[in-house]
Each structure stands twice: as C-alpha cells, then as structure tokens.
Amino acid sequence: MASTNRGVTQADIDYFASAGINVVHSNEQLGGTYNTDYFNKYHGASQTIVFPKSTSQVSTILSHCNDSRISVVTQGGNSGTAGGAMAQQHELLLSLRDMDRIRDLDVISGVLVAEAGCILESLDEHVRKFEYIVPVDLGAKKRCMIGGNVSTNAGGLRYLRYGSLHGNVLGLEVVLPDGQVLDSLFTLKKDASGYDVKQLFIGAEGTLGVVTAVSLALAPKPQSEQLVVLGMDDFVTIQRTFVLARQLLGEIVSAFEFWERRCNELVVQYEGYSSPLSATHEFHVLIETRGSLARHDWEKMGLFLARLRAEQLIGESRVVRDPAEMGQVWLFRSQMANAHMKSGCMHVYDFSLASKHQHELLRAVKAHLHKHRLYACEQAVVRDVTFFGHVGDDNIHLQVIADEFGGAVEEAMEPWVYQWVGAHKGSVAAEHGLGAHKGQFLRYSKSPVLVDTMKALKRLLDPNDIMNPGKHVARA
Amino acid sequence: MASTNRGVTQADIDYFASAGINVVHSNEQLGGTYNTDYFNKYHGASQTIVFPKSTSQVSTILSHCNDSRISVVTQGGNSGTAGGAMAQQHELLLSLRDMDRIRDLDVISGVLVAEAGCILESLDEHVRKFEYIVPVDLGAKKRCMIGGNVSTNAGGLRYLRYGSLHGNVLGLEVVLPDGQVLDSLFTLKKDASGYDVKQLFIGAEGTLGVVTAVSLALAPKPQSEQLVVLGMDDFVTIQRTFVLARQLLGEIVSAFEFWERRCNELVVQYEGYSSPLSATHEFHVLIETRGSLARHDWEKMGLFLARLRAEQLIGESRVVRDPAEMGQVWLFRSQMANAHMKSGCMHVYDFSLASKHQHELLRAVKAHLHKHRLYACEQAVVRDVTFFGHVGDDNIHLQVIADEFGGAVEEAMEPWVYQWVGAHKGSVAAEHGLGAHKGQFLRYSKSPVLVDTMKALKRLLDPNDIMNPGKHVARA
C-alpha cells in the first residue's frame, strides 16, 4: 500500500541540519543495517536517516514531516523480525540510537526511566548493580532497544514470571505525529485517573508516534538461580511437567522453554555448540527458577525432579549449577533463530495459541506442505518445519526453512496458516508484531469491530498517515 | 456539567419491555441503593433502571439510547467511592447485576472468562476449587463486581504481588455506545497484533461503553499463607522494613499494609473489633506472604523477623498462624473505611504518591486545615485526619473526617490537596477512579496534551456523549 506522502528533498535535509539534527543522506540507498532487517528477509529503500539526540529534536523532525507530509519510519536496534522498521520506499528513517540516556533510577521504588535508544542488555546490567533486573528479556538483548521492545510489545523469555509490558511499563514519553510531546512518563505503580493512553503505544510499532522514553517497574534481582534441562519424548509430557512445575516450583519458576529435536540439531550444526544433553530427544525442555534463598530453591527443584522421575516423565535430565554453564545453556537457546536462518530461507511465524493446539499446528503445517508437494517428497523445497516456544504464555515460534523466500512456500502457507490459527482462537502475532506483512491477516483473529476501532484510532492520532505508513493495521 | 441529552420517556420504557428487557421505573426517584453511593456522599436522581441479562440486551439498550440521545450510567456492585456510578440527573441506570455467568474456566492455562456482574468474592471462591485465585482483591469484594473492578482499574490489596489489571486482563467484551459489540475477549497471554484497544476501557469508568465480560489471567492458589502484624513508631521504619521484606521475603510477599494509630482506634471504637496488637503504636504494619511450601515460607518469615529485631525496628510483633485469626486481622483491616464513615462525614482521598512524600502529605494537610482554623483548634469542624495505605504500590488513602460534607472543609482541601499531590508527582486517583468529581483536578497531575488526547478518545468512541456524561475526563 503506497503512501501518498512525498519523499525527502534537499530542502528538508538542510532544514534538519540547520536545526542541529544529525542527518545522513545518500544518493543511493543508505548502507549499513538501516535497509536490511535482522533475518535478511525485509529490505528497505531509504536514502535519508536522522539521529535525534533529544525529545525536542524528535519533535522538530515530526512537526516538519507532518506539515510537509513526509513519512517516517522509526528504528531502534533493528532486531525486529516482521519488517516493521524497514522503510518501504522513500520514507525518512528516524533512528533512536543517540537517545540512550538513563534519566532516572529510583533505587527505593525500583522504577527506571530510560530513553528509547538504550540497549536492553545495558539497562539490565546497569540496574543489576542496584539489585534489580529489567523484567523483559529476549534473545536479541545485545542489540534491541527498550523503545523497540515497548513498540513491538516484546514478551520474551520470562513473561511467565514477570508478566506483560502492559503491566510493567508505568509511563511513556511519546512524540505525537504533529510534534506535540505526550508526556505520560509517570513513575507510579497504581494510577486510575483517566484513560491509560500510553497503552496504545505499547505494540503500535511506530504507527502512532515515536516513543522517546520509557518508565519501567523493575523486578528485584534474584538471589539464586537454578537451571535444569530435560529430555522428553512427547509434547503431552511437557504439558504435564508444566502443571507439576506450577505446583512444586510455584512462585520461583522464571522460564519454561521447549524446543524440538530438529531445532537442537540445527544449533549444533550451524552454530557449533554442544547439545545441552547427551542423548537425542524429541523435545528439550529448559526450566529456570529464581528465588531469594538458594537452599530453599534447590530443595524445591529437587522435590520437583523427584516427582518427575516418580511419574516417569523424563528420559535424561541435567541440573546445571555453575553460572557459566547456565550462560552456555541460555546461549544455546538464544541461537535458535540464528541457526535456522543459516540453514536456509526462514519463513518465521510467531503465534499465540492454546497449548493443546500447538503440536497439532506443527503436524498440520507439515501435512499441508506435503500435500502441496513442498515438503517430505521428491521435489521438496522445504527443508525443515520446526517449532519451539515458551510454555505457559501460549507463544510458539514456527519456522519453515525453504530454498527460497516467498514463492510457492509462502503461497501455500499464507493465508492458510493464519486462518488455521485464527480458527483455533490463536493470535497471528504473539511478540514479534504485525510489521510490514501481517496486518492483512489480522482479521483472521480479530473481529471486524475491533479492527475498525484500531483503524479509527490510527486516523485520530495520525491523521496525515505519516508514521510507518502501509504497515501494521493499515494493511488490515 | 449538564448533558444535553434527553431523559427516559414512557415510550423508551415500553421499547425496552417489548425487547424483553427487565426495566424498572418509578415516578419518584428509584429507591434501594441505586441512587446512593457506598459512602453516602453521592446521591443520584435516576427514575429508571434496566437489568439486561445478555450482551445482546445491552447492545439493544445502548443502540436505542444512542439513537435517542439518552444518557446511560452503568452500575455494577455500586461500591465505588467516587460517585462514578451515580446518575446525576435523568440518566438511565444500567445494572449488570443479572449478567453474572461464568462463561469459561480453562483449568490448564488458568484463564477465567466471566460476565461483568459476577461478584469478585464469588469468582474467587469458584476458582479456588480449581487451585487458582483471582489476582485482584479489595475490601469491597463481597459487593463489587468484576466489571466494575475493571472499569475503575481497581488495584487493591495485593497489587504488589499480582500486579495491575492492565497486565492481568487478557480480554474484554465491550458494548460500544452505538450498540456494536467490541469482542476482544481473548484468552491468550501474549498478543502483539495491533493496538491493545481493550486497555482503554480499563479505568474508563463506563464513559466509553459497557464492559459486559472479562477474561482474566488467574494466579495459582498459594499452598501456604503467613501473616504478621507489627507495631512501629515512625514512617521511616515502615520504609526500611519494606526494603528488608523485599530482600528476605522476596517472591513470597503478597501484601504490605500500614495504618496509623487513629485508624486503628476508629476500627476498635466504631466496629467493635479488638486491636490486632495489645499496645498502642503510631503505626500498624500487616505483612502477608504466600508461597508453595509452608516450611520454606515460615522459615523465611522467621529470618525476616529476626533481622527486624536485630535492627531494632519493631516494638511489638504478632505472628498469626491460625487461618481463622488471619481472617480476623484482614477483617479488621477491611473495616477501616467503614469505621471512618461511621465516625463522621468522610472526605476520602485516594492518591498515588512516592513513598518519601506520603507522611509529609499527612502533615501538610493537618497544618493546612489548622491554618484555616478547621482542625486542632477551638472551632474545629474536622475531627480527624488519617491515612493508611499499601506499601510498595505508592497508594495511600487519606481521610478527613468532618462534621459535614462539602462546606469549608472541601473549600480548604480542594483544589489545594490535588495541587500538592500534582506538585509532588503524584496522581489524583490511584484506584478509586475520577468519578463524578475528580476529573476537574486531573490537570494537576496530567499534562494538557495527555488530557486533550483523553478527551479526543472520548469524542471518538462516544460521539453523542451518552456514556456517563459529565463525569471522568469530561470535567477535566
């Protein structure tokens, strides 16, 4: 969907420069990562990027763009997987890289106020010195920025324990499309005074304005961490194990991940890491606990594992006690997407789906691709269909690894897979966002009244359609 | 602010009746509790009330009212304290009392779908049979309804542990002012597909539509509970104790309440309960923990209390082990508002404020009322100025008990106290909502751009201003 807005001219560039804004323009397309997304699937065509250093500079930029009808694509760490941060044609790129100050950390209340360009891992390292952690964590933490985490509503690895950004974000500073600064950068936990406007920007993927700063409720730093990796034969066993974990590990469970056999093989093959278990298993399960008293936490873990053995649920188990080894297991887990990417052209799907339907989906996809003579047959162009996910928060990642992007694979998969997920009451995007492509499938899981309300909100807040046009709900 | 909408006529009543809707009309004002709020402060003047039994009936009602420009005030358990559920003039009352079905409980994922008229305590009792609890709890639980909890964004007693409704509400069914049903009744934990529209209705106090059903992420039922009541001499000690609780009780802390001496005396005097401690203390502190293994939890409590004693932080402590006694202590705490109400005309304030300013506020209010010759002087009409609150979530309740409502006390207090709170970066409403009165003070704690955005959202979603007109942000 092409925007009717105009492109950036030399006069615009001069205007930004005269306002003291760092602007980079290229007669060709911009190099670096600006026009290529993390998985090398989406490619942008932008020639101009601005690097504001302050909220006031962001306001100057948007005000000018709104008046001049120039479209703007906001970029954080550019680690998204849905193409949301890629300029589709002549849009201006707005990078938040240089807005990376920590504005405040209240060590009594545990509230952090940080600018949008702060790298997630750096924030976490900083607050750990004060006995806190950032309550969101994900594979891209070395690269992603907190503004992007908020804008994509990233759920991540420890949602199970720390919950949603809709609960943990206490306030936002947002520059609206017309340049007005919407200051809702509150640091209070309870607040019931008026509509919670900031919530609209959580997951808006830069379509309603630019998030310039975030106020976050931090979680206390755990005093002890436990990790166990389990080998399992079937998906039902994972579900039973999860129920037992909730009972016996209770409030200390902090992550519960699974990945299937082929995912494990790909990480070993393409990343060169050793498998965390010695034997081959249909499923690997990683359970992490975090607590305030190591002796209690290990005892709970022991009782839990004893129960699993008594119920004959596990084949092989490895209790990891050494922090360095724990880091290696997490590194193995975090390389899953990269390993898939290296193994071929990765069509990646990010669904929310009730646990009871998750394995069924994988089987349905394989059968569907086979029926279309794309998988598990002589002329197959699909090499692998895999899934891994976060148990307890409904989120699975499904990968179809093919010889090429798009083409017959995409045609067979889409919209079929989105229809399947919608029909099973799932969501077409759990934590990666709608981005450039998935808005068109939104109606498979959201009702027309809801989608129309989303579109009305977009028109209200961005009447000139300058913010990330043609993406997200614009495609719905 | 008088609405220009018209009142209910006999023809409207006939229309509702012909559609099978239970409608009650009185030539005088309606009796019962419909026109009197819980604290007997706000009084309505409605003559007509409807009791829809289904979402479809709510849709019929709103569609008719929108076409006919009849204003609608939604009522749940009518336990609010801000007058939000009182009809101000000729509005139609819409009670959700008869929409009290539990639609679904997924015992694996722990997601409850319930209609808005379900009583909070009944829901909690129901889900406890399946090893879950409802993650919100408050003093009015025997009367308040889940739709009202969501609509006022009730935080309650265990926010510290279970977090915000913005995180725990997974979906809503809302009838929009024009009668369209906005179905966002999802049961998925992670979802990043489009704007999170449902968030706008959390805390909207019935100004954007009628919440007819709620999907809630439940919390696991604790396997053990611990309770301790502490006597303390000053507010600084409470803060230090909270820091130690976070360290030593960690993930099992589930409530941390304080109330000052006079609050304790009022409950003893007006409710006839025994004080939970034997001596008189400037402050009482109630700490509750909930965990999955009693032996561990009690051991942590022991370590915590030993540390408090070592630091000489407590005067008297009472560890409560018997569940019935725990119930009595909670009952004592929950009678705080009632006892104040019985002691005189209660001007109640519900602020969020950084902990470091909370005691300062109480002192400032006393000094201010004294300066106005209303408190602690010969002609005083103010009998008591008290506060109690939830430590760790920034929320305090401040009471000014006077001989009369309104008058000189209200004039002295307002807008002065809202300005004071705004100037100290607090919020004018933490969990009771803006209701009939407090919208006018919103600008002391929210920026003009934010307030204007709220008003624009109201115009977008309720263009005919039929939903709870003249309240909430309409007064801002």
UniProtKB/TrEMBL annotation, chains A, B:
Which domain of life does the protein's organism represent? Eukaryota
Keywords for this protein: Oxidoreductase
Q: What is this protein called?
A: D-lactate ferricytochrome c oxidoreductase
Enzyme Commission numbers on file: 1.1.99.40
